[in-house]
Backbone:
């Protein structure tokens, strides 16, 4: 048997309808405990998923229909140059709310930027202090080496004098 999208869809819809009818008849029966097998559980899950998908499609259609009506209304008013109506006032309120949101987000972003700049400044200062500390340690090491060289030189001279006296 050849399978194609149409046949699979048709068979799935048939099985879903049969399960709906079975669920309706089992709801009418009162006090009857039914044992569900794996197939029935899967069909119930499929039925729920199918119903959810149908609800989403319906919601999307309603939403897009409302948006379309709203766009048409705006176009009509723009073309007719009508005076402001109540819906225009609603749009202004929405505009004010969106302006408030935009200003809030802008202030929040500016505050975050200022905080990051302060953090960067502190890091720079820490790095500078670390660099200065490193330089001081380097100078101390160089000074210590020079002192050791002088001490070794003096010690060598002393040893040479002592050797010359004994020879």
Residues:
């Amino acid at each position: 048997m050849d399978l194609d999208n149409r046949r699979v869809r048709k068979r799935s819809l048939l099985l879903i309808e049969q399960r709906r009818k079975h669920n309706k008849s089992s709801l009418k029966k009162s006090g009857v405990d039914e044992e569900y097998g794996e197939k029935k559980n899967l069909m119930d899950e499929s039925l729920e998923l199918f119903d959810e998908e149908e609800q989403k499609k319906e919601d999307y259609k309603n939403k897009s229909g409302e948006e379309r009506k709203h766009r048409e209304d705006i176009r009509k008013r723009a073309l007719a140059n009508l005076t402001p109506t109540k819906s225009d006032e609603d749009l202004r309120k929405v505009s004010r709310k969106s302006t408030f949101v935009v200003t809030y987000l802008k202030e929040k972003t500016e505050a975050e930027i200022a905080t990051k700049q302060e953090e960067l400044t502190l890091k720079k200062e820490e790095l500078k202090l670390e660099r200065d500390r490193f330089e001081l340690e380097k100078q101390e090491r160089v000074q210590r080496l020079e002192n050791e060289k002088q001490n070794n030189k003096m010690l060598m001279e002393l040893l040479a004098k002592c050797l010359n006296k004994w020879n």
Notes: Helices lie at 5-28, 38-80, 86-166. The two ends are 119 Å apart (CA to CA). The CA atoms of residues 104 and 113 lie 14 Å apart. The chain has three helices and no strands.
